[in-house]
Amino acid sequence: MKDVLDELAAVRRTMGKGSVAAGEAYTVELRRRYDAECEDVWDAITNPERVRRWLKPVAGDLRLGGAFELDGGEHGEVLSCEPPRLLKVSWLYGPDADAWPGTSEVEVRLTPGPTGDTEFELVHAAVVGEPSFPIYGPGAGGVGWDLTLLALARFLAGGEGADHEAFEKSPDGRECARRSAAAWGRAHLAGGGDPEHVAAAVEATTKFYAPDSPAAED
Is the pLDDT of residue 147 over 80? Predict the structure, then answer.
């Protein structure tokens, strides 16, 4: 469990503002270092045979301008692709997602480190009026990305794959979700969030991802 929590603590989280095709957006930004070459990290996030081992099976035309869909229903188009440094996609999810085109984008930037490592940055920008934000705050997407980047870390370190559903239901997974929700609450406060809204959002996010765990300020 300590290794898992150490990986979670390695992430730097920020909530900010940006823009997408549909207008003004809020952003959740995650930054961390992976002990892997930049080209290896790039291949892990763009090679369908590797993506399915730490994320989900993916299908579609994975080239600039092409459309993709993950096994869980997330889908979009490849907006920018500059190997091995930059990948940007539109990111839609949920039964009504296609009613809001241009409202959500994910950008990943990779920077080679000085010792063969990689600085990894993920920015998810979503329209401020996106339905889940008033309830969950940045944790609406942030907790999911925390768990995803944890799976990528374990894969790059030699893991054989990820069973997201099993992990999220495990004691370790629930503890990670609880701590992630608290961490996004701190990022929300640092970004100017109202304390009462932040506290309610952290509680709602914790109950969503880990219903049997109390919210806490770790």
Answer: yes
